[in-house]
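Suppose you are handed a protein chain with no further information: no name, no annotation, nothing but its sequence. What can you learn? This example shows the usual starting point.
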Amino acid sequence: MGRTDYLDKLNDRQKEAAMYTEGPLLILAGAGSGKTSTMTHRIAYLIREMDVSPYNILAVTFTNKAAKEMRERVQKLIGEGVNMWILTFHSACLRILRRHAEVLGYGRDFAVYDPTDQKTVVKNICKELNIDTKKFTPSYFLGLISHCKENRISPKEYNAIYGTDFKEQMIGQVYERYDRTLKGNNAMDFDDLLLKTVELFEKDEEILEQYQNRFRYIMVDEYQDTNMIQYTFVKLLADARDRDGNPRRNLCVVGDDDQCIYQWRGADIRNILEFEKDFPGAKTVKLEQNYRSTANILAAAHSVISHNRGRKAKKLWTDAEDGNKIVYYNADDEKDEAYFVAGEINRIKSRDEMDGAGDYRQFAILYRTNAQSRTFEEALSNRGIPYRVLGGLRYYDRKEIKDIMCYMRLVQNRADDLALVRIINEPKRGIGGKTIDKLRALAQVRGESLFDVLLDRDVVASFSSKVSENLRAFAELIETYGVEQENMKLSDLYDGLLVNSGYLKALEDQKTVEAESRIENLMEFKSVISGYEKEDPNMNLPEFMERIALLADVDNHDSEENAVTLMTLHSAKGLEFPYVFMPGMEDGLFPGWRAYDREDGLEEERRLCYVGITRAKKRLWMTSARTRTLYGRTDYTRESVFLHELDSRLIEGDGIYDRKEKKAEAVFRDGAAEKMPVKPFDQLKYAQAQTRKRAEAMAKAADMDFAPGDRIRHPKFGEGEVLECGNGIIRVRFADSIKKLALGYAAIEKL
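A reasonable first move is to predict its three-dimensional structure. Written in structure tokens, the prediction is:
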């Protein structure tokens, strides 16, 4: 047994959790309470004091950033290579499926489709089924498909349960074809990585026992964010038996029910609230000492979250000083709000109280919706303050990067029809839609991939000589690199594809600023590859593609960049900043109007507010606007219910209006009636309705009969007289001009 003095850095509760190793353990870790330190020290204790092999430990979390940090900290504690799985859920499942995919009818080299790929698949299906994608968008179908997969509803089961009307039958058709297309392309989406792993475990008991016997100790981070599939995956592994047939259940979960903010994408708070019920005899340890924020910030967070009923009792505390009070500013409008925030950043930056004068990266602006960022970007730009928006268009979603990644995907997996269709004519090779449709039809009849059809010389020869030549050259390029990929450095393969495909030359020949920018991005992608090669000189193409596919937005956060960070409150989870601004504290915006549509909606929004408050280490500002223009409409607002829940003794600045609700909805909790705020005006829904109304008015004008001499009113030019009409065009004399107007593009009113 080794010495345990390394545990002296932990407080009593952390140490208790780290040294409890046998049986189920729930660590309720409040914001900033040192959960990562507790988890890593627990792993070190298992290895150093309990002689557990790292091979027998599994630690799973949600982001690559969290997994990397945990891996590095364990490395420092045990002083040797970490031969254990410290991975995200998706990475762990992907690693398992790479070894056993054949059991489920997949090749081990299956592709992982990201959201962009998924949308392309659904768009193609909608085209085949003549579905109007303006009325039913690909995102609509993918949201339903994801929900079905999270709840383990197959296409067949969906059709049996829900296929009772036309709309549901249509959804079932799309789901069924989507599932079939991915399987045919030897591909999985992100939901499949989890779902198929669970199916694998349930289908093959020997494989399940293999991993149960390997992972004798399981640790799960952010357990409050797990969905049903993740819960099932963990439970299957944890239900291992020892040699005597007794349940081992060495499962440790770490989380905070007060930070469960992802129910809208499948997280089930019951997983953490009912852990003791699911695993009888479980020990619970509460980590309540906070090492991040001042006492006033913690008190403010508690005064809000304590209004939630569906939570486990706990209260964060700190040895730190009280610190500044929370500043509240009630702006005239959203522009005034943004300029106040920019002004405060400059003011604080110039003061001596800052750690590292002139350092903008200590500031964060956390908003409820992405639509709020624009005014802050303008205000910061006007003051010359550098900023970055986290969660916008990802680097890997840019066209040129997607294109070259599809080249690499096709080299890795020639059955990937989606990748082939995207790049077969990128750069332009004279291979149009009709050629692709013929190839696709033939592939469908023969039950082969598109690339298999391209390898048939007789098929290729049936096209025109130029198209045939280009098809053969394309197939030869991919086949050659597919065969040679194992013999090449990743960076050499990338260079070869970029040059020999003609992609780089096509951009160079354009000689435009846009083309130059795209070339810069492609060169930067080479830097990405070089970085991975430095980390692992032997990294191959499949490993690289997996790493890229599993990147998340929060993994792209560069804490070293000297810029103010703008992001949504959801994106901010897991991060911390000395100075935090929370704008838009208004009912209907935060909490959002959707919170009032379900019983626990307001509680989840309140948890989101708690997460935002606890991101702040030293100072916190909250702002609202008396009027706000959002989605094209300006309205008077009312201050957020969360502002009224804050302990007034903790706030300075503008006063919070002491409102009396004239009407309130009564809800019943535990037999007692409780007053809920009146549901705020739904700006988004109103804007959508107005948009539809406007579109209908324009369409109506196209069906009107006009004749010379008719008087009309135009929304931009005012009243006028029709001079001529015909073929959907009218010529109108207005007060100071004569215009030709195409009917159907303005809400013209006949007087």
